[in-house]
Each structure stands twice: as structure tokens, then as C-alpha cells.
Give the backbone structure.
Amino acid sequence: MCAVTPCGAAFEIAPDRIRLTPFRKSRGDIMALHVYDHVTRSRRKFEPIHPGKVGMYVCGMTVQDKPHVGHMFAFVACDMVRRYLMHLGYDVTYIQNFTDIDDKIIVKAREEGVSAEEVARRNMDLYHEYAAALNILPADQYPLVTGHIPEIIAFIETLVAKGNAYAAAGDVYFRVRSYDEYGFLSGRHVDDMRSGTRIEVGEKKDDPLDFALWKSSPDDEPGWESPWGRGRPGWHIECSAMSTNILGNHFDFHGGGRDLLFPHHENECAQSSCGTGEKYVNFWLHNGLLFLGDKKMSKSDGNFFAMGDVLEKFSAEIIRFFLLNAHFRSQIDYGDERLREAEAAYGRLRRGMARLAALRTDQVDPVPEGLISEAGETLGKAVRELERRFFAAMDDDFNSGGALGSLFTVVKEVNQYATAAGAKIRDRAVLEETWTFLATAVDILGLHPKGIEGLVAADTPAVPDEVIAMAAARDIARAEKNWAEADRLRDEIKECGFLVEDGSDGFRVRPLGGTD
């Protein structure tokens, strides 16, 4: 039977272990948000087009197949950006489309003997299932190509009327050389792009650089009536029509994978600017790509891991943490070994937050209000500096990897506080300040659907506060080289059904026979 003595009666505080000073809270200065600008090739201060509001459009999937991890990276990254903008107080309108009609979808449907609509709907449903698991906030709208055919046709008609596009035997092409700025986004020059391009069989365009806005459709394939005959939209035009229809001609952010930079986003810029006569997008959020060995993850190459298969091995929280543990524009090497490393790191973060939860809710009497112990003062100063670093990282082009690094250091400081404070000192104000910061950070990064409470609850089964207090007292005894007392407390903890383990980042307590 485990007999746990109330902390207030069990342990004494040595006079030289505590120093009380006035407690003051100061968060520190936070820099303004700066975002990478593809035009200037540098970071520049973010200023919204409309004060207090942000318009954000994200290129969604072409849904001919199941989502893979590479797809979900883009949406996790853009979700993180959205969450931070919301934290800064912006009213964010977030739009993410689906390309639900496309040559690849038609081919897939023909192979399966079903309709293109059935193929698209099945894979869109899978996306929503995986997005919910990864704690991606739902978009305000998910426009479909098939639901915006009139807007797409009207946009093409405007381009034709302005001379930026031309019809050719049922197809319509954008005239690339009609837009003097073509290539500004990707850093390419039109004359350089001309070499290596050619007109494919069946194309009727005037210039090899021109691209399709509308494609004629045979009777046995999906199509819609238009001024140029029965057909369907080209790939690039759909995003221009849908984004401007919902967000207006000029909006703040456009997201998507780096592989979309050229030609997709370059073409979007050209046709949108020509069609509206306005600047299209202020900032482009191009996330890096996932690589398997020396090749990027890609459905077309058969080089990918389906999201459902990955979720059978690792939790959605681990996958999200893994994807955010670097700057979102970085290339990421993907593999089970990397995910296992992320799982271990996430466990350390979770256990540190669970320890903080125990410290702030245990039965130890607090340091008197308005005062702070030496250990509390050290923790408070460290947390305020780390909070500053967290937000500085997020303000530096949404650097989630740098921000996460600050959280690991906070956890280390909490462990050091627990050791220094021992079983009798609790600086409630500092512990609450630390908890509030970590809770905010968890929400910004979306590390758990239920926030920090859910993240901490995952460190189950819970260790009683009394056992944590004994483990902290044992830590003090070890520091004072009182090995007999340390061994006694270790044995008492064991009688309660728990094991205390020592590590470089402090002790941890787990159930006997339990594992992570």
C-alpha cells in the first residue's frame, strides 16, 4: 500500500534555496510580420490590402487519386500561416479549391468504369477525413471547377476581348507575349523559355509558349457549352476565375507547392493581371517539397506514400509536428526513420508540458503573491526571452521550425525549475505565464486538436501530483548527494506503481511496465 504524505508536512525548504523578490511580467518587444516576396526575392513587411482583413487562396488537389503526404504538407503549412494571421487579429477569408474535372480524372474514371464525378467525390471525401485528423481548420469555401463554369467562361471571354487570348478550332489559348511581365514570378525570361518548347500534336496555338484556357471535349467526355463549342476549362484558368470571384481581383496570399510556381502560378499571374487590369497577389506561399531519397514525392512518378497508409503507422499529431519542424519553404527528407525521430521529439515536448501541468496544479503552497523565488525568477526571464524568440521566428516568414525550437527550450527550463524549486516552492504566477505562452503556441501551430490540454492528456496514464512531488524531492536529494534519501524516495515511488527515470533534460515518471 502506498502511503503518500502531504507535501506541506513532508519536506522542509532550506533557507539558502529560495530568494523572494518582486515579480514583474514583461513579454518583450515583438517585431512586425515579414513575408518572403517572390518579386523582390527578399522578405518585406506584411501590410494587408484591407485593414484588419486577409484574403488567402490555396491551390487544392486535382482529385484523381488518394491524397498523399506531399499533398498534405501544403495544407498543413498554409493552415499554420492562417492560424498565425488569426492570432495577430486578422479576419482571414481562407479559400481552397478542388480541381474536380481534369484529363487525369477522366482517364481514372474510364479505367474504373465509373463517372468522373464519382472519382472526384471519393477523393475529396478522403481529403476532408485526413485534413480533420491533421487538425487543419476547414476552409471558408471549397470551390469546385464544375461549380464555376460560367465564371470561367466569362473570364476567358474578357481575355479574348482584350486581345490576350484567341480561339482556335474549339480551343482557346492565352497569348503569352501579350503580357510584358510574363516570367516575373519564376524569374524566367520569355525568350529563354522558347527554346525546348514545341506545339504538340492536336494543338492549334500560334506560339509554343501559349497555353490552353479552354479545351474542346469529345461527346464521350464531360463538357460544357461555350461560345467556342463544347469543352472544359484548361488547368490554369480555373484558379484565376474562382479566386478573383470570391476574394476580389487583388488579394493578400496565394498558397501551393513549390512545384506549382511554374508554369501554374506564373500563368495564373499573367491571365489574372490581364483579365482584371490589377495586381493579382501580394505574397506567394510556396511550401517546399517532400523527397524520398533523391526524388520528390509525386503521384505521377509513383513515388509517394498514401496518407491513409502513413496514418496506420504514426498518429496525425506526429505527422503534423514532423511537417512543421522546419521552415515551410524548406525541402524535407521523408521516411519512417525521420517520423520516428519526430515521434520521440514530440514525446519529449509532451512530457515537459505534462510536467508543467502537474507543477501548476499540485497541492504545494504558492510563493506569496507579489514575490518570486530565485528559481521562479530564472524561469520567468527565460520564458519571456523564449516567447520573444517564438514570435520573432513566426514573424520571420512563418518559421515554424524556429518557433518549435523555442518550445523545446521552454520545456528544458521547466525541468530545471522543478529541480531547483524542489517540492516546496511553487511560483504560481510564473508557472501560469509559462502555461499561457505554451498554450498559445500549441494553438498557433495546431499541435493538437484539443490544444495544450489535449496534448498533455496524451501523456497517459496520469501521474499523481503526490508522486511528482516525491520525484522532485528525490531530485533535490540527488543534487545534495543525499543518496540514502534519494533511494528511499525512489523505492516509495516504486511502491506507488511508478518508476522515476533521470535524463539530461530532467527526470520523468512513468507507470511501472509502461512505455511511451
Q: What stands out?
A: Confidence is low (pLDDT under 50) at residues 1-30. The CA atoms of residues 130 and 308 lie 8 Å apart. The chain is about 45% helix and 15% strand.
